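>> Question from a student workshop board

For tomorrow's exercise we were told to take the sequence and the ligand below, predict the bound structure, and bring the output to class. My setup keeps failing. Could a helper post the expected result so I can at least see what it should look like? The ligand is manganese (II) ion.
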Amino acid sequence: MQLVNKILLVSLLLVVLPLVLYYYFFPTFRDLFFEQKEITPFSRYAERNILSQEFHLVAPDHLKYNQPSIVSGRTDVVTVTPWLAPVVWEGTFDPVLFDSIYKQKNITIAATVFAVGKYIMFLKEFLETAEKHFFVGFRVHVFVFTDRPNELPQVKMAAGRQLTAYPVPSSKRWQEISARRMEFIQELIEKELHKYADYIFCLDVDSRFHSRWGTESLGGLVAVVHPGYYRADRSEFPYERRPESRAYVAPGEGDFYYCGGAFGGLLQEVHQLAKTCHSNFKADATDGIEAAWQEESHLNRYMWINKPSKVLSPEYLWQDFKNINPEVKIIRFSGVIKNYAAIRPNV
Ligand SMILES: CC(=O)N[C@H]1[C@@H](OP(=O)(O)OP(=O)(O)OC[C@H]2O[C@@H](n3ccc(=O)[nH]c3=O)[C@H](O)[C@@H]2O)O[C@H](CO)[C@H](O)[C@@H]1O
Ligand SMILES: [Mn+2]
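>> Workshop helper replied:
Here is what the output should look like for this input. Compare the format with yours to find the bug.
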């Protein structure tokens, strides 16, 4: 009897043990039976816990700031879109509160700026004024895409802020420089930024900061309303109007006309935007069509379908040649007056 028991035990072990070892060391089988991963719509955010980062707004206890109101506030401008995204105007947010919330998240903000050909001359002022106004007190990494890395200006940057040159080819057409921005932004995110950056803003270099541009501008997908068209009827917006183009916006459609010179948001969102605009731009080129305002047209098409979760008022990209309207209480960032013929490689 005892011998029968022993034989049974040994033969059981001989069957069970290889099975256990097999399931343990053979990952596909193991995954299949033991660890089947749940694919959720949010899994692309899981790695950096980005989603909670964006929506979990924790304020420090005992922070003192002005009492908020839901019955008084700015009445001269619209501060929310029809899809209930905030429109950021001076007087609609508390900068101290915002900074305290985002300080606790330990975020890194990347900024991209293109300085190809003669446009390198704008870089010094752009960087110097960014030091004074752009996410002061936060970790900021500025990437300059340029064909002249040796001409990078010397600008003293505060602790936690850095500058990196990213070499790109020169071009004989300004349209191509402007349009290829989406391609290089996509590449930078895939190669580098995904490792550590949380948010990104993509900005025109021929501009300067004049006042605070800070954490109030952060959001999933962030667009700036163009200063030239924010009072205009949508029929006047310079969208791409040829249906053959992938940037086409039909008459009677489109929310706002957004700037190509400033946009941003969470890294994942901007990656999706850059990838889509780049591939649509390329497909258009194969068909022999270039949208009216290059990547700005593609961006506007993208934002019509993918509504921005935060809209920045034209305070965030004004133009120096424009008279200031009364609803604009502050100018944060503005394009300088320039002589196109003197600085662009073609006219
Ligand atoms: C306020 C705003 O929304 N501006 C848009 C408008 O700008 P602008 O008329 O201001 O165009 P722009 O000449 O500033 O070109 C856009 C950007 O491309 C880069 N660049 C351009 C030419 C060059 O030789 N070297 C160089 O580096 C540079 O970063 C510049 O800031 O129309 C362009 C047309 O496509 C873009 O959509 C811009 O974003
Ligand atoms: Mn510009």
